[in-house]
Amino acid sequence: MPELPADFPALPQPQLDLAVERAALADFYDYADLLTDDETATLRRLRGYLAEDVAPVVEGAWERAEFPMQLVKGFAALDLAGLPYGLSGTPAEPARRLFLGFMHAEIARVDPSVNSFFGVHSGLAMGSIHAGGTEEQRQRWLPSMARMETIGAFGLTEPHGGSDVAGGMETTAHRDGDEWVLNGDKRWIGNATIADVIVVWAKDLESDDVRGFVVPADAEGMTMAKIEGKTALRIVQNADIALRDVRVPDENRLSGGTGTFADAGGVLRLTRGNASWGSVGTQMAAYELALSYAQQREQFGRPIAGFQLMQELLVQMLGNVTASLGMAVRNAQLLDAGRGSDAHSALAKEFCASRMRETVAWARQLVGGNGVILGNGVARYFADAEALYSFEGTREMNTLIVGKKITGHSAFVR
C-alpha cells in the first residue's frame, strides 16, 4: 500500500491526563477529596499502573478483540481484587464502597473492558462465593482469587433469559448422590474463556430454588465458545457455554448464606452500584478526550474550544459527569452505612448509564468524523457505552425497581 507523503497533515491526538498525583480532570467538584490519605495513595498506585501498562495496549487489544493476559500479573501486584472482602491491603478489613467505586471509575476511565474484566472477577465471581459460600468454601477459593492466581467468571445469563433469568431459568441441577448434574446453556458470560472457575447458577429440580455451583472451567461436559463480532467491550472475553451432564461435587455447591439465588441478589446490588461507577469513568474519559481535542483542533483560524457551541457541548458533558459522580458517591456512602437498598443502586445505575450515553455521543459529535475511528479514544468509549448501558440491569428494569420502591406498586409483568 502506498505511503502518504511526510507533509500530510497530522490529526489532533487527544490524551487523557493520567497524572498519578491528582484526581481526574473531570472531577470538577473534587469528590475524590472524600477519600482518606491511604485510599488516595492506593489510587495513585493504580493510576500509575494504568498509565504505564494498560493505556498503551488497550486500543490494539480492542481492535483485535483480545484480552491482554499480561495485565493479570500487574493487577495482582496491586493487591486490589480481595479488597471488598478484607483479603487484600493493610489493615485486612473490607474496603469502603466509596473507595471501591473510585477504583472502578479509574479503571473504566482508561478502559471500560478492563474494568468489566476486573468487576466480573472481583465483584460477581468472588462476591458470589463470599456471600453464598461456607467458611470452608471461602478459604478454598477466595485467597487464590484475591491473588489473581485463579480467575473467576459468573454464569447467570441464558440465551432465553436476561432480565428474567432468575424466574425463567432453564439451566437445571439435580442431585445424584454426592454430586449434582448440571444441564443447560449460558450466554454472555464474561471472562469465561480465560477463567479457571465459573460460578454457575441453576434451578434445583427438586426444590425449584436457584442455586450456585463453583464449576472448574475444564469440567467434563462443559464447552464454551467465544462470542465473536461484538461492537462493544471487545476486550472482554464473553462466551456461550453449554452444560451437558456436568457433574459437580456437592462440596462445590454454594451452601452458606441462604443457599439460594437470594445470595446473588445481594451481590448484584453491589455490582450494580459498581456499574454506575464504570459509567462515571467512561464519561470522564469521553469528556476529557473531547476537551483535549477541542483545544488542539483548529477551524476558521483558531481552536474550536473557543467556539460557543463547542463550549456548550463540553459544559453539558461536564454537568452529566458531575451529576453522575454525585449520585454514585452518595449511593456508595449509603451502602457503607448499611442503608443502601436495591432501589438506590438501581437508580444510580439507570441515571449514570443514561447520562453516559448522552456524554459519549456529545464527545463523538464534537470530534466529528475523527470520532468514528480508533486512535483518538473517543470511538472506543462511544462503542463500549452501549454495552454498559444494558448490562447489570437494563434502564427499563432498573426503572421498575425504583418505581416499585417509590409507589409501593409492582409494575413487573410475569
TrEMBL record:
<keyword id="KW-0560">Oxidoreductase</keyword>
<dbReference type="Pfam" id="PF00441">
    <property type="entry name" value="Acyl-CoA_dh_1"/>
</dbReference>
<dbReference type="InterPro" id="IPR006089">
    <property type="entry name" value="Acyl-CoA_DH_CS"/>
</dbReference>
<feature type="domain" description="Acyl-CoA oxidase/dehydrogenase middle">
    <location>
        <begin position="153"/>
        <end position="246"/>
    </location>
</feature>
<dbReference type="InterPro" id="IPR009075">
    <property type="entry name" value="AcylCo_DH/oxidase_C"/>
</dbReference>
<dbReference type="Pfam" id="PF02770">
    <property type="entry name" value="Acyl-CoA_dh_M"/>
</dbReference>
<dbReference type="InterPro" id="IPR045008">
    <property type="entry name" value="ACX4-like"/>
</dbReference>
<comment type="similarity">
    <text>Belongs to the acyl-CoA dehydrogenase family.</text>
</comment>
<protein>
    <submittedName>
        <fullName>Acyl-CoA dehydrogenase family protein</fullName>
    </submittedName>
</protein>
<feature type="domain" description="Acyl-CoA dehydrogenase/oxidase C-terminal">
    <location>
        <begin position="266"/>
        <end position="406"/>
    </location>
</feature>
<dbReference type="InterPro" id="IPR009100">
    <property type="entry name" value="AcylCoA_DH/oxidase_NM_dom_sf"/>
</dbReference>
<keyword id="KW-0285">Flavoprotein</keyword>
<keyword id="KW-0274">FAD</keyword>
<dbReference type="InterPro" id="IPR036250">
    <property type="entry name" value="AcylCo_DH-like_C"/>
</dbReference>
<dbReference type="InterPro" id="IPR046373">
    <property type="entry name" value="Acyl-CoA_Oxase/DH_mid-dom_sf"/>
</dbReference>
<dbReference type="InterPro" id="IPR006091">
    <property type="entry name" value="Acyl-CoA_Oxase/DH_mid-dom"/>
</dbReference>
<feature type="domain" description="Acyl-CoA dehydrogenase/oxidase N-terminal">
    <location>
        <begin position="36"/>
        <end position="149"/>
    </location>
</feature>
<dbReference type="InterPro" id="IPR037069">
    <property type="entry name" value="AcylCoA_DH/ox_N_sf"/>
</dbReference>
<dbReference type="InterPro" id="IPR013786">
    <property type="entry name" value="AcylCoA_DH/ox_N"/>
</dbReference>
<dbReference type="Pfam" id="PF02771">
    <property type="entry name" value="Acyl-CoA_dh_N"/>
</dbReference>
